[in-house]
Design goal:
Length: 215
């Protein structure tokens, strides 16, 4: 029986099968790279969030000198005094209570340089060889690029941590309950870590952690 070669149709079908297989492998590899990159970002974000938690965990809820109090504000309305940074607190080392961190963002064009570690030090950019990347203009280490840590501190109900209370709120005495002063409520701390890649126009939330600071 004489030898028979491939027809043009058979060759075309074989090429289609090969191309489809290659495209599937390329797409699978692309998906793996994206998934692996996101896992790496999530790990970094979790680390950065926990650094803030570690820095805050031993601090008192309110300023150890001025505390939290209620004063009469404009129009006779009650106004909380002692929430946020007090006079003279201008550096990270000055933060001496939990509510000092309310509304503060470290890095990413926020209130302070960052991101920071549990000691308040700016975390530097590291190259592929494990060396610290220095700013070519200043010669100083560059902060970890693209990352930021934003902190929110809220006063919550002593009976339901999901319920936010106002900073001037108190609980009145009732029966055997002696009441609860303005500074005797739990605080909820929320840290949101964001990342902005060089090709992104805005930072993206990567992870958020929250915890309760009891009274």
């Amino acid at each position: 029986m004489p030898a028979r070669g491939f027809t043009l149709l058979e060759t075309a079908l074989a090429m289609v099968i090969v191309v489809v297989g290659v495209l599937a492998m390329v797409e699978a590899q692309r998906g793996f790279i994206i998934s692996n990159g996101w896992s790496s970002q999530e790990a970094t974000a979790t680390y950065l969030a926990n650094e803030i938690r570690e820095r805050i965990r031993t601090l008192p809820r309110h300023d150890p000198v001025t505390g939290l109090s209620v004063v009469t504000g404009p129009g006779g309305q009650p106004q909380a005094q002692g929430v946020g940074l007090e006079a003279g607190e201008v550096t990270i080392d000055d933060f001496d209570d939990v509510d000092d961190y309310n509304g503060i963002t470290f890095g990413g064009g926020g209130n302070f340089d960052g991101p920071i570690d549990a000691f308040g030090r700016v975390i530097p950019e590291i190259d592929l060889n494990g060396a610290v990347v220095n700013n070519p203009q200043t010669g100083q280490p560059m902060a970890l690029r693209g990352w930021s840590q934003s902190v929110a501190v809220t006063k919550v109900s002593a009976y339901d941590f999901a319920t936010t209370r106002g900073w001037t709120d108190t609980d009145p005495a009732q029966g055997a309950f002696p009441g609860r002063a303005v500074d005797r409520f739990p605080l909820r701390v929320t840290v949101t870590v964001r990342y902005q890649a060089p090709d992104q126009i805005a930072p993206q939330d990567v992870t958020t952690i929250s915890w309760i600071v009891p009274p």
